[in-house]
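A quick aside before the break. I want you to see a complete sequence-to-structure record at least once, exactly as it would be stored in a machine-readable document. Don't worry about memorizing anything.
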Amino acid sequence: MKREFLIAIFVCFCLGMTGCDASKEVVNTDQVQTEVEAEHKENEDVAVSDMDETTDETSEEDVAKDTTTVDDVLDLTESNVIVRDSLELDKKHTKVQIITDEDYTFEDDFILEYTDAIPEYKEVINISNYYVKEYNLGDDKFVYIIGEDDEDRVIDTCIYFTMSDFEPFDEDTLCFYGCVPNEDDYEYTTVDQGDAKIVKYVDTLEYYTDCGTQYFDSDGHLIIWEYYLTSGSRKMLYIWDDDNVSMIIDTGGQAWSSDDEGTLVGIYTLIYKFNEPVPFEEIVFE
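That is the input. The structure line, written in tokens, reads:
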């Protein structure tokens, strides 16, 4: 009950930001946060522009295949799902930095906060301009690095967790802080990038603005889902085990604070681990 109560407070807090000035409790992280939001605005404009210029639009059949449906409900309480919710954890465990220097040490510095030597990493995602690296620090401690390569800069998200951070997930649906697109209210365009397919969507309602981008691999697996909320840009990352999902990372939004170097500190992050990987179509979001 404590966890649901805290999450409810957090969600209400984020929603409250749209109706009043910036909250005194959430730090406006100035330059770095502004750049991240500006990048989203640029991507949103591009998505709308693509709607006018791209003729390779998805058919209704493609939309039905490429977007999450709520027809098949997975009983998550029977799937042995565990969740790590950063709302109740030390906020320093998730940091974001915009990197423009080729000799940056941000990733190494973050890892060395939790271990004496940097281990070899395993690349768990590499698609389009995204990569995700897993560092196993031993003793059930891990660091995940999410890199978004954007021309002359890299947006780095570093997440530390231990298996003791996780607890059993006892809800019927995953806590997804966004809008699952309904093909009746959205327009879609598709861009092929060789081994990746990128699907962009934008709503068609005059009084509402919602857009996002989904990255699919050559096997049709959804790997990255970028979406936007009033609290900032978020992304979901899907880690697959063959044709089933083994882990989902949902991270983004405004930071709790920033340090002297402009690093965003305390990004709200949810990690779902499926002890028994499940088919994607059985996963349902709120």
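Two observations worth writing down. The helical segments are 2-16, 30-53, 60-66, 106-111. The longest strand covers residues 244-258. We'll return to this after the break.
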